[in-house]
Write a structure and sequence with these properties.
alpha/beta
């Protein structure tokens, strides 16, 4: 997977547990939550403390208008520069269900980053039969650590 963008325009999709494993095995890897500040506050965030990682929160779109963040790539690059990363650092993008994070991975690939991944199913996954998220798929349903922020 690493090194070459896939035919989809980014390094590929990782299931939530695969993302966790990559973060556990590669100290340079970074998880970037691209949801809105409202989502971080009200829904929760991945907890990477047991891995010694810091979650990066950089909005892809901003609530309530949901306009694209024009500084997204620059914000990711600045955060990466602060930790000594480069264009080959594994970047794992996460949103609610995988759509915004896929777009972010594609944008960062176009910006020259060779290992930009989408965390498939996102933080909450699809709706279940009761029209609730968080029980069928995604970070939370996979049993990975998370917390209210």
């Amino acid at each position: 997977m690493a090194g070459q963008p896939s035919l989809s325009g980014y390094a590929g999709d990782l299931e939530p547990k695969e993302a966790w494993m990559l973060l556990a095995e590669d100290r340079a890897a970074r998880l970037i939550d691209v949801r809105t500040a409202a989502e971080w506050s009200f829904v929760g965030i991945p907890d990477l403390s047991s891995l010694g990682h810091e979650l990066w929160r950089i909005e892809w779109q901003s609530y309530p208008g949901m306009g694209l963040n024009p500084n997204f790539a620059a914000e990711v690059e600045a955060a990466l520069e602060r930790v000594g990363g480069d264009c080959s650092t594994p970047l794992l993008f996460l949103c609610r269900t995988g759509g915004r994070s896929q777009a972010a991975a594609m944008a960062m690939t176009q910006a020259g980053f060779s290992r930009a991944y989408n965390v498939a199913q996102g933080f909450e996954g699809d709706l279940d039969e009761a029209r609730h998220r968080g029980s069928l798929a995604g970070w939370k349903a996979s049993g990975l650590p998370w917390r209210q922020s």
